[in-house]
Write the structure tokens for this entry.
Amino acid sequence: MVAQYLLPELDVNFNQLAKIADWKPGYVVWGFPVWKWLMDQGIHITDYDTIDYQAWADNGVTGLKASIPTKEFTYYQENSYDLDLESRRIKQALSHPQFAYIQHTPSWEEIVGEHNKPGVCDITLDLAFLDRKPGFIGHRVVLVEISDSEVIFHDPNNKGDGANRRETIEHFKNAVASFGSPELARYSM
């Protein structure tokens, strides 16, 4: 959705992005290859996250493990195709001139503030919590609208019914908080 919104002339589809992301069915889709591609197209990315990207880049998986909650690390470890490869890919984002990194948990005010700026935002949250199911699933959704009572977002789920999904603002905020170390990224030209 980010690529379609900011780069409509390229008419990028899901299959093309899956190839750029090096997506492997059944595994976490890490955004670093897509980020590099987007930044190479002139898109600026501002990313808020608690992960110590520099430690991850310098120390590999050990650096990642040291900077995130245990449930999140376990999820990534069990559901990533190759965490060592992602450790190398993060270096590309850190060194790219179109990338700005803010290492801390974004507050709700920052989330709303970034959403209100030009561009488009996505955020990670706990999909199991969002869907009112047991367990933990790290998941990224694109923010469409935030009002005083609800959040409208695009949820790229396997069922294909996630366009303009709506949740109460409180439930959405709790799904973000349940993630442990939510990430917010704003993409702009």
In short: The chain has ten helices and seven strands. Residues 52 and 67 are 6 Å apart (CA to CA).
